[in-house]
Amino acid sequence: MVKYIFVTGGVLSSVGKGIVTSSIGKMLQARGLKVTAVKVDPYVNVDAGTMNPYMHGEVYVTDDGGETDLDLGWYERFLDLNLKKDNNITTGLVYRAVIEKERKGDFLGRCVQIVPHVTNEIKHRIRVVAKSSNVDVVLTEVGGTVGDIEGLPFLEAIRQMRLEEGFENTLYVHVALVPILDVTKEMKTKPLQHSVNELRRIGIQPDIIVARCSEMIDSEVLRKIALFGTIPENAVFCSYNVETIYQVPLILDEQGMGEFICNRLGFPKSKPEYGQWKIFVDALLNPKYDVKIALVGKYAGLADSYVSMNEALRHAGAACKAKVCIDYIKAEAFEKNPKEIEKLRKYDGVFVPYGFGPRGTEGKIMAIRFARENNVPFLGICYGFQLAVIEFARDVCGLKDANSTEINPDSPHPVIDLMPEQRGIEIKGATMRLGAHKIVVKPCTMAYALYKSEEIYERHRHRFEVNLDYLETFEKNGLVFSGKNADARRMEILELPNHYFFFASQFHGEFKSRPGKPDPEYYGFVKACLDKKLGKAEPEF
Ligand code: GLN
């Protein structure tokens, strides 16, 4: 019998529900249980693919090509899982399914309503994940904050699930902020009390409350939360600020949360085994070296836009005992004042991430040129890969005004062009080339040294690609495409053999990077940054 844990949030969004959900999963895994996680997003978009990363954070891509909420990335990283697009349930998906059924006549004769038709669809989708993933526990995180209008059908659905699945098979965890007042340094629980009240008004009594506070809450505050939340004191936990979020499962477990959950759900008591996880956290907390990386991007004002990339760089850092400091640099700054490019001198590496549209692209190209000409380690991802091709075309192959047709449709040298199957597509949602595709890696290259395999599978999200008309020119001028798709018509990895480390990929390695198992291209980049800094003649992989 599968058990269900539901995580809701109160007071504010971005309170750390995703990390608490992932941490609960980790605590259960450490006790030998099999888990999966579902993110419920009450927004009306069918998926996250059409949302601006600058407002909503990065779009996370699953193996099966889902464009999902970034919390799925946290679940995958914490739990070392490869989730499916079904693990992200949105209002858009649910309503679309209900309306399609109505049109087909599935509800013939009846009035279609939020309860039961929409709530049934929500429960059905959570149970489909439970069935298909063959686990002991399904974690379901409800996005947004309790009290949001759009979240109500989801809360009603999880309320009903207790009635249907039984008390001993369901658990409600409520995560809410406990702010500390600047002046008096007091920890204030009133907002949390209100959010618990709101939850109860809907019919959900939390079993566990996680107070999100910058510091560990004191026992007085804990008692107050328990009293007003109507739960025992040993059901209140505190997620306080830690140096790295990978510590969160450990600090919650120390407070007894893992044991409490197992007890409550009837799992046998067992000692948690964190093994590799603790080794990874220790490596993060005790670095021997440091490397400074300039991330030159368009969405540089919001770190969440690049969250998987940040984490992949950190995973790579931990593997080489290095603390990775990332500075976010707005690409447009270089366009406005070309002298600013000199600022890149103080970095050990230049990183150009994904992106869309023309804004900031010339600045990114300037950063790539700086890295290429000054032998500074460079990693380009997706748009970063395409812009590296453009830079090489212009400066090395002498193709003046070479560009991507995404940036300039009238370029005389469209070295990056729309993929043939993208022509004629007008609908924006879920129409890019998405998800994991096979890549053939060329032996005796940097790529092969890193991946140690001639066949890899990596996740994609793009519409444009290298224009094959220019392939010969590129190769003649020394650019090596060391990874191609199965029929060799799609360029996937590029490298420059005479450079310390100049590497870029059309795919996104960051989505497969895990604590203790860094992604090869990110590892190669950070190791090259470090080895160059340490004065080694070449990177030692
Ligand atoms: N805009 C480019 C494309 O669509 C790159 C996309 C990306 O960086 N994810 O091909």
Structural commentary:
The protein is of the alpha/beta class and 541 residues long. It has helices spanning 17-29, 53-56, 71-79, 91-104, 114-133, 152-165, 190-202, 219-229, 248-254, 257-265, 276-285, 307-319, 332-336, 361-373, 383-395, 446-451, 471-476, 520-533; strands at residues 3-10, 35-41, 60-61, 67-68, 88-90, 137-142, 170-177, 208-212, 236-239, 289-297, 322-330, 349-352, 378-381, 402-404, 413-418, 433-441, 455-462, 464-466, 480-485, 491-495, 502-505. It has two domains: 3-279, P-loop containing nucleotide triphosphate hydrolases (Rossmann fold); 287-533, 3-Layer(aba) Sandwich (Rossmann fold). The protein has a nine-stranded mixed β-sheet with strand order 11-10-12-13-21-20-19-16-17, with helices on both faces. It has a seven-stranded parallel β-sheet with strand order 5-2-6-1-7-8-9, with helices on both faces. Helix 5 (114-133) crosses helix 6 (152-165). The two termini are 46 Å apart. The structure holds glutamine. Glutamine (GLN) is lined by residues 354-356, 382-383, 386, 406, 461-464.
